[in-house]
User: What shape does this take?
Amino acid sequence: MVITLVPFEKLRRDPNNPRKDVAAARQSELTASLRIHGIKVPLIGYAVPDGVMVCDGHRRLDASAEVGITELPVVILPQKPNETELLLLQLTINGQREDLNPVDEFEAFSRLLKLEGWSATELAQHLATSNADVTRVMAIGKFTPEQRERVRKGDISKSAAYALSRMSPDQRAAMMDKVAAGEATCEQLNSQVRRRKPGDDVKARRVICEVAGGTVSVQSKDGLTFTSFIELLEGLLRECRKLRTKGLDLSTAALVLKDQCRQGRAGESST
Assistant: This one.
């Protein structure tokens, strides 16, 4: 990845830039930061006949105009990138920063998974990072929109956010207030997670596991603990083995299991 200093007058604003409107206060903060520290993160653009078309960094470009920066660092691509290419490059550039916002990172990861249909392992390979790092980032998905905003604003650090993600929703809400108030440290959060008893396991409504040869997805409206997840899988295996002895193929067995489940729910509702 080559970063080139490009004169301000050679940079072109993309008329189709999908950037959302930015609050004046946030833009003022960026302008003040650029005035003191300069541009830390390069813009991304692609070559056009009369200069470089900016496809990422319009806020930095606007702030530079106010500050009077005459040359800006730019990663120049040979042609306009598609959305996946741009996201991967943004994450590669931002991954070199220790202050990267974990919520922005989560949203970018989620967008890539949706765009390409990748598994977490495939995403890790494309980003040249570990599966564990992807898991930590995606843990933000357990937070409510309000909790994510607190992380985005910097009230909760990245390491504290991951520790909080391993708690139950009620416990997370209570401890998040303590962290924001400076009454609990990340080490205290991790210690509390380690002391959690197996019976206090965090519940998940949906569990997706990648295994050799495929992906297993299990969901429950009541939520799954590790124990109930194992019990559900063991029960499924027992039923599948019974149906296999009857000579059923997999598709037919799945229909039989679905019908049995419906009959069971109907029986419960009639009692």
Remarks:
- Residues 143-196 form one domain.
- Strands lie at 3-7, 11-13, 43-48, 51-56, 71-77, 204-211, 214-224.
- The first helix runs from residue 24 to 37.
- The longest strand covers residues 214-224.
